[in-house]
Design brief:
There is one protein chain. This protein is of the alpha/beta class and 443 residues long. The protein folds into 2 domains: 10-76 and 335-440, Aspartate Aminotransferase, domain 1, CATH 3.90.1150.10; 78-332, Type I PLP-dependent aspartate aminotransferase-like (Major domain) (Aspartate Aminotransferase, domain 2). It has helices spanning 10-19, 78-90, 100-112, 125-140, 201-211, 236-247, 266-271, 297-300, 318-331, 336-358, 383-389, 392-404, 425-442; strands at 45-49, 52-55, 60-63, 118-122, 144-148, 193-196, 215-220, 250-255, 277-280, 291-295, 363-367, 370-374, 407-408, 417-418. The strands form 3 sheets. The protein has a 7-stranded mixed sheet, with helices on both faces. Strand 7, helix 6 (236-247) and strand 8 form a beta-alpha-beta unit. Helix 2 (78-90) packs antiparallel against helix 9 (318-331), helix 5 (201-211) packs parallel to helix 6 (236-247) and helix 12 (392-404) packs across helix 13 (425-442). The two termini are 20 Å apart. It is an enzyme of class 5 (isomerase). Pathway: Porphyrin-containing compound metabolism; protoporphyrin-IX biosynthesis; 5-aminolevulinate from L-glutamyl-tRNA(Glu): step 2/2. One of its GO terms (molecular function) is transaminase activity. Its EC number is 5.4.3.8.
Length: 443
């Protein structure tokens, strides 16, 4: 069983204090900041291997943080690591010239994802969303983008709105108003955004009926992964696809988290929906920064002659392409996803059983290797449900108890637990044993 002995993390505390002198907030991403849940300081990492990470104080954890998703193969996967080492030692990294391996990668992505006819690489999910929305506006000749309250599509000015706004300043439940993530976003950008509640098809139908001629795209995650884990209600994505298609609106799936994680064909294959454009990132690179935007040939061809410009010095660099090629080869191995789902379901169903027996008002929501625990007496279907009904204090106690026992995931209820292909039945059994202990203290 995972140890419940107190874990001192003095080295992390000291490293954080030192880092704050030279790095604003002491970290390089908001998800690692103290105000995202890492109070009074984040853990500093020493190393990772497979399903485990070791912190700066030498404590080892079973890791369900997984870098917020990219480490689908676990830490330091041999095939990916060797591919990158070979690329650096024998080929090189950045040439500002194309290489054959780029087309090899494109063909693998196209073969894996049925909706994609052509694909263009980028460096990050943020870039991918920027490219996809630009393509949609160019293709349709329209300027507005529908996006959903509580989703995160990167930090570019055009979409970094209404991620987790204060409800009292965000308009009505059915017609939210755009709320900037913070100061510094230029005024006027919000005029090109329509913010809607997730999982409400009637509101989407009304807006498309009234304003469809202005809307270039509906931008959505196929399941919400940035306000915890929220699944689409039955028929929701199907109706979204039908409405957008009839109105000449492009449907963009942000599969930065779900792509190559829920399956080789992404969430769109699992749900049976064909979007016009898709963005992939985290799972694509096996831990290295690489992203891709792909979709219908007629849309993607706008890039071919420079009508729409997508550029970047580090785009399709040798390291990224080598890592992605090796990652997809691993993911395409026979039985890979069956094994991943087996271990993931062992965790999810095990947690469901523990909470059901505890009497706590809790729901374990997820699909395959993405899941989260909602401490709520009712189902959570959208961001405002989460804000009003999820018990954040109880989640904090749950997280503290689990990390004390060597089980690592993000301290924020609006993040997720991720499972990798490196996790074993033993990892899951240790996790469930820890969960039983912690839940007993919460009930």
């Amino acid at each position: 069983m995972a140890s419940s002995a107190p874990r001192t993390t003095l080295e992390s505390a000291q490293l954080f204090a030192s880092a704050r002198e030279v790095i604003p907030g002491g970290v390089n991403s908001t998800a690692r900041a103290t105000w995202s849940g890492w109070e009074p300081y984040p853990l500093f990492v020493q190393s990772g291997q497979g399903s485990r990470v070791t912190d700066a104080d030498g404590h080892t954890y079973i890791d369900y943080l997984l870098g917020l998703g990219p480490m689908i193969l676990g830490h330091r996967p041999k095939r990916v690591t060797q591919a990158v080492v070979d690329q650096i030692q024998n080929v090189g990294t950045v040439f500002a010239l194309p290489a054959a391996a780029e087309a090899d990668l494109a063909r693998k992505i196209i073969a894996a994802v049925p909706s994609i006819d052509m694909v263009r690489l980028s460096n990050t999910g943020t870039e991918g969303v920027l490219y996809a929305t630009r393509l949609a506006r160019a293709f349709t000749g329209r300027r507005k983008i529908i996006r959903f309250e509580g989703m995160y599509h990167g930090f570019s000015d055009g979409v970094y709105w209404s991620k987790h706004p204060k409800i009292e300043t965000a308009g009505s439940d059915t017609r939210p108003v755009p709320v900037p993530q913070g100061p510094g976003l230029p005024k006027g950008v919000e005029e090109n955004l329509v913010i809607l509640p997730w999982n409400d098809i009637e509101v989407l139908r009304q807006v498309i009926t009234e304003h469809g001629h202005e809307i270039a795209a509906v931008l959505t995650e196929p399941m919400m992964c940035n306000t915890g884990c929220i699944l689409p209600l039955p028929g929701y994505l199907e109706a979204m696809r039908e409405l957008t298609e009839k109105a000449g609106i492009l449907l963009i799936f942000d599969e930065v988290i779900t792509g190559f994680r829920l399956g080789l064909g992404g969430a769109q294959q699992v749900f049976g929906i064909t979007p016009d454009l898709s963005i992939f990132a985290k799972g694509l690179g096996g831990g290295f920064p690489v992203a891709a935007v792909g979709g219908r040939r007629a849309v993607m061809e706008l890039v071919s002659d420079g009508t729409v410009s997508l550029a970047g010095t580090y785009t399709a660099n040798g390291i990224a392409v080598a890592a992605a090629n090796a990652t997809l080869d691993e993911l395409a191995a026979p039985g890979a996803y069956e094994a991943l789902y087996a271990v993931s379901d062992r965790l999810r169903f095990g947690l469901e059983d523990i909470f059901a027996k505890s009497g706590l008002a809790a729901h374990v929501v997820g699909l395959g290797p993405v899941l989260q625990v909602w401490f709520s007496d009712r189902p959570i279907h959208n961001y405002r449900d989460a804000e009003r009904h999820a018990d954040q204090d109880l989640f904090r106690r749950w997280w503290l108890g689990m990390i004390e026992r060597g089980i690592l995931f993000h301290p924020g209820a609006y993040e997720n637990l991720f499972v990798s292909m490196a996790h074993t039945d033993t990892d899951i059994d240790l996790t469930l044993a820890a969960a039983r202990e912690v839940v007993a203290t919460l009930a």
